[in-house]
Design goal:
One of its GO terms (molecular function) is acyltransferase activity, transferring groups other than amino-acyl groups. The chain is α/β, with parallel strands linked by helices. The protein has one domain: Rossmann fold (3-Layer(aba) Sandwich), CATH 3.40.50. Strands 1-2-4-3-5-6-7-8 form an eight-stranded mixed sheet, with helices on both faces. The longest helix is centred in the C-terminal third of the chain and has 18 residues. It is globular and about 55 Å long. The two termini are 27 Å apart. The relative contact order is 0.15.
Length: 276
């Protein structure tokens, strides 16, 4: 089912695609666990991308979980935009975790067991939401995510993404990282790992070289950046004795075949607390 939600937090309609479990209609008294799947930035397919580019529909067809795939726009960054302190629109975080959640709970029998996973900037989004709302998600997974947005050269990558998507005043997102680094850090998974203690965590990434799921030889410039930030994030978790499951699988590009495989591999961790 596709939902078009008239969102006060966005100031416009926001789209969400939902997959329901096999016995959802036959068990109208039951509350179901929820898996949020987040797409990456600049994805033309937007909220349709998980069903268009992966086997998520078939993979979850026999699983007792509601799968929620919301839009994040061209580059919403899974955040409430700062906008120089003047307005609070768009606020993707509130759209996803308050408006969408309440609609699912009120109208579609979504329960309180939740996990979140995402690809690329959606991987950032998964860890971002997990640390900012530690009581909301039992598990979080990042597939090729940018998990240290204050790492070397990474602010420039974020700014480049925003400018490429037409957000020429990139400071509207989290302000200027040189003047207000505290705003950037308040959204950075790396700087907030303590808030992830007690959440089941999964982090995966390739190294950018062509791998077994690619069509031919080549090199992807985005995946090494994702790998570098993911590795630094994991190292900090381990320094703090916070458990994390990793899959740094070597050759592999920044692409959907690897993220489909990552969903399969991380499913036992994501669903661990769904039915207890």
């Amino acid at each position: 089912m596709d939902l078009a939600i008239d969102s006060p937090s966005l100031g416009e309609h926001g789209m969400v695609r939902v997959l329901f479990p096999p016995r959802w209609q036959q068990q109208p008294w039951r509350r179901w666990p929820v898996l949020y799947l987040l797409h990456g930035c600049c994805e033309v397919a937007d909220y349709e991308s998980w069903t268009r580019f992966t086997d998520v529909r078939e993979f979850t067809a026999d699983k007792e979980v509601i799968v929620v795939m919301p839009s994040d726009g061209p580059a919403g960054m899974y955040s409430a935009w700062h906008n120089h302190g003047m307005v609070d629109i768009p606020d993707w975080e509130t759209f996803h975790l308050t408006e969408v959640r309440q609609i699912l709970e009120r109208n579609f029998r979504a329960g309180e067991r939740r996990a979140v996973a995402g690809v690329s900037i959606g991987g950032f989004g998964a860890m971002h939401y997990a640390f900012r709302h530690p009581d909301m998600f039992d598990a979080a997974a990042s597939y090729s995510g940018m998990l240290n947005t204050m790492g070397p050269l990474i602010p420039a990558v974020v700014k480049g993404i925003l400018i490429r998507e037409g957000y020429y005043d990139w400071r509207a997102l989290w302000g200027d990282d040189r003047i207000a680094p505290h705003l950037w850090r308040s959204h950075n998974p790396y700087d907030n790992v303590e808030s992830l203690r007690g959440t089941d965590l999964y982090v995966s990434s390739g190294n950018g070289l062509s791998g077994p799921l690619d069509d031919g030889p080549g090199f992807d410039v985005l995946e090494p950046a994702a790998l570098r930030t993911s590795e630094s994030f994991v190292r900090k978790l381990r320094r703090r004795d916070i458990p994390v499951t990793t899959d740094f699988y070597g050759p592999g590009t920044h692409s959907w075949p690897y993220w489909e495989r990552a969903l399969h591999r991380s499913w036992p961790l994501l669903s661990r607390d769904f039915y207890r």
